[in-house]
Structures are given as C-alpha cells and as structure tokens.
Amino acid sequence: MTVRNAILMIIALLLGAAIVAVPLYANGYYLALGISILYFTVLATAWAMFSGPTRYISLATAAFFGIGAYSAAITAETLSWPLQLLVAAGAGGVVAAITGLSTLRLSGIYFVIFSFGLAELIRQLVIWYEVNVHKSVGRYLFSDITQEVLYWQLLGLAVVVLLAGYALNRSRYGLALRAIGADETAARHAGINATLVKLGVFVASAVFMSVAGAMMAPRWTYIDPAIAFNPMISFQVVIMALLGGATHLLGPLLGVVPLVLLFEVLTAALPNHFSIVLGLVFVAIVMALPQGVIGLIAPLLARPHAKPVAMPAIAESPLLSVERVSKSFGGLRAVEGVSLTVAQGEILGIIGPNGSGKTTLLNMLSGALIPTTGTIRLGDAVISGLPAHKIARLGLARTFQLVRVMPELSIAENVAAAALFRAGASAGSETEIHDLLELVGLGRRSDTPAGELTYIDQKRLELARALALEPRILLLDEWLAGLNPSELETGIALIARLRDRGLTIVMVEHVMDAIRALCNRCLVMSAGKVIASGTPEVVLADRTVITAYLGEADA
Description:
Layout (H helix, E strand, L loop, with lengths): L2 H18 L1 H4 L3 H26 L6 H15 L5 H23 L5 H26 L4 E2 L6 H24 L1 H11 L1 H6 L4 H27 L1 E2 L1 H4 L3 H13 L6 H19 L4 H15 L3 H5 L23 E10 L2 E11 L4 E5 L6 H9 L6 E6 L2 E2 L5 H7 L1 E3 L12 H9 L10 H10 L15 H13 L5 E5 L7 H16 L3 E5 L3 H7 L2 E6 L2 E6 L1 H5 L2 H8 L5
Parallel strand pairs: 5-10, 5-11, 8-9, 9-10
Antiparallel strand pairs: 1-2, 3-4, 3-6, 6-7, 11-12
Helix pairs in contact: 3-7, 3-8, 3-10, 3-12, 3-13, 4-5, 4-6, 4-10, 5-10, 7-8, 7-10, 8-18, 12-13, 12-14, 18-20
C-alpha cells in the first residue's frame, strides 16, 4: 500500500467514525438535519439505482415511501420493529412488482405520468380505507425509538443501499441497465431480457424506499395520507439525484447534502413559495448541470472495465427455415407467404427494391416483429413469436439497417453486453475481446465511447456485438451500405472470413458486387412476395427481377 492510499484510508476511517458518532456530539436541530440527510440519501440512491442507468424518470418515490410509513403505522401495535420493517419491504416490493409488470413497457412521458399518478392512486385508496373501514383519517404511532437510534438505523440502511448499488454496478445486470438506457432495442437483440432486468431493479429500489418510510414513521407520531404520500418527496428526490449525477453511485449523495440544507432555509424563509423555488432549482440544474456535479469530476472517477468477451464459436448444425410467413400492418400486407431455408455455412442474399419487405422479414426472424401467420424455426426450435432476447440467446444475431449502438457505453461494454447474456457462456480474457474487436477493425479503441465513433465504425461495432453472442446464424441488414470502395472490399473480405469459419449468414443488401462475391443463393422480394430465387448469376439475369428494379419500360 502506498503512502497516499494509506492516508486516504485513514481519512476515510476518521470520516466514517465521525459520521457514526454524530448522535454523541450533536442533538436537537443538527441531529434532525443529519436524519434528513440520511433518509434522502437512501431515497435518492435507491431512485438512481433504477432511473439513473435506464433513464426512466420515476415519480413513484412518494408511493413506496408512503407504503412503508403506513405499513409501520398499521402494524405498530401487533408486530415487533424488525417485523414491521419486513412487512413494509414486502408491501413495497409486491406493489412495485405489480405496477412494474404493467408499466415498465412504457417509456418517456407516459412512464413519468403513470409513476406520478401511482402515489395519488394509493393515497386515495388509503383514504377510502381509513374513512370507511378504520373510521378515522390518520393513525397515531407511539414508539420508544429515539432520534439517536433512528439516525443509526438510517445510517445502516444508507450503507446497505450504497453496497447494493456498488454490487449492481459491478454485475452484468448493471451493464444490462446501462445498455437498456442507451438503446433498449439493441439491448434486447443482444440477448438482454430488458423487462425482467428492469423489473428486478425497480422492485429492489422500491423495497429500499419502503423500508426508509417505515423507519421514518415513528418520527412523526401522527400519520395521515397527506403526510405519508406527499408528492413533494418525489420531486425533491429527483432533483437531488439529478444535481449530484444519477449515473454514478455517489452522485445522489453529492446532491442530497447541499439541497437538504437549501430546503431547510427555503422552508423557513419562503414557506408559501417553496414549490415555485423548487421548480426554479430544477430548471437551473437541468440547464447548468445536465450531467450533475459528478459530470464535472467524471474524468477523475474511472469506471471499472467491463468483463471481456470471448471469440465466437460456431455451433455444429444450425439451420433456419421459414414457412409461409406473412406480416400485415392493418390493411397493408408488408410480407406475404414467404418461405425459405438456410443451410449451415451458407450465405443467403435477400435483395429487392425499397419497400419490398426485406427488413420486415428480418425483423420477424429476429423477434422485433411477430409474424401474422407462418412459422419460423431455428434448428428444431420454433422461434416465431418469441421475444428478441430469447431468439438472440438461441443463436440468431443481427445488425440493423439504421445502425444501433449504446452511445454512452464504451466499445468494449457494447460488446460485453451481448457476451454476458448469451446462453450458456461466460466472458473470456482481455486477449479474446481484443481479438474480436481486431477482427472488425476496432482493436485499439476498446475504451472509446461508442457515440464518438463514425457511422462506419458504429457498423463495425454492431457486427462485433452480434458476433459476441456466438451466433449460429447472423442477419446483416445492409451492413455494407455507405462504405467507400476500399471499405467495401474490406467488408466483403470480413464476411467471407466469417463464412469460412462456418457461420451461416442471411444478408439483405443492395450492393450487387457483394451479392455476387459472397452469396451461395439469392432470394428476390417485391411487394412483400418472393419473385425469384437461385444463384446470384441466374437471379440477377431474370427478367422479372430486372422489371421489379427498373420497371417494365426500362426492362
């Protein structure tokens, strides 16, 4: 251990001891201030655990905090304190699971609106129960828990939340959350079960919020729905997390301390204008510090390297068969009765004029769309109708016509997101991840954020991410489009090398030189139907194909 590290450790120990000992030398107002800092630290860190990486702005904090507080109030006379906390955690977790299953498919403003409405919905249900069943508006809660004990309890909970956040960030699920926040569609096609990952972390976040509410309940003595489900808590937590920086573990703490102090001053000085000032503070944070305080010091905080990715291996006998698959959008028949088979090690080219249904067909193969009719098999498994992440884990990977990368993640993390969730596989060594990136021409740039890459390099990254799934079949959707002649030659050679390794490829392409050079067979689509199939030489000379591309007059 270096002298510098030893000094830092001593400072950290002294600081920790001072924080633990606060109730021994502080009382009254300052102890209450410490309690406020701790419970907002728990709430803001738990909020950031889910909303930070996914960018799902949740205003449901007040709902789960209130559930915890009311659980403690209801069970105070019948259960011991540890059991009260356990009941609060269970109640918050169950409500989060139920609401998450029905709402986490929402995104953007729709999720914000629902999460805000959840607190009001639960508040109204509690009011109805209190008035009609309990025959009162609120409840008294008498407890022998002192301010000092409450402080230590909240401190312990804060440490648990921070440790949970640290463990999550270091796990593959932390990488999965960041991938979902960067591009959820790409994450699903990288084998990540986005719904399950989001739900699990959302429930964990809600449990911590509910336990915090239960711990705070004895402090009030009297609890009613307006106190427990105060919507202002949700907004305060969001502002604190955003000020500090919701994407970093310690970011919320950096926002909690100054804002708790500010809110104390505002409550005393401007009690009738607190909401207005709170709104102005929020606008100022978004405008001046979009990445939070942590964004100013991010270069000093190195994120742990992602787990490395193993080189792809080819399965022994992959086979794709499509039987009379169709897809309709209302009255529009985008794909109609398409059938095809692809043998192991083969490259099948799919060509046709724009709007002929090529990408729609690939979307059905990869799980982005569900066929209206027909069956798709990968080997012996029927995959038509399966979600994208399951199809990816079964061995079918893809790139996109409009390139999709996770821009905030590094090149290595983009690839690792796929490698860590492929079926029955584990990440390999740093040498292996370098070899995979070297294969696509990105070997020396593994730490570069994907958003800084050129369009062509993002295409290369997409291919590396697809290969990290160790696919049996690779779908390339116009992967060679936009390349200059030199890049095109390199790209064709790369696809040929993948074929030589035994990888089966289905490629949608407009570059006829690539079709001639690479494809064993070619399938031509027009108006959603297959109009020709065979070797590239035969198909490209077919008068029906020429007419589809050029029109009857020019054919």
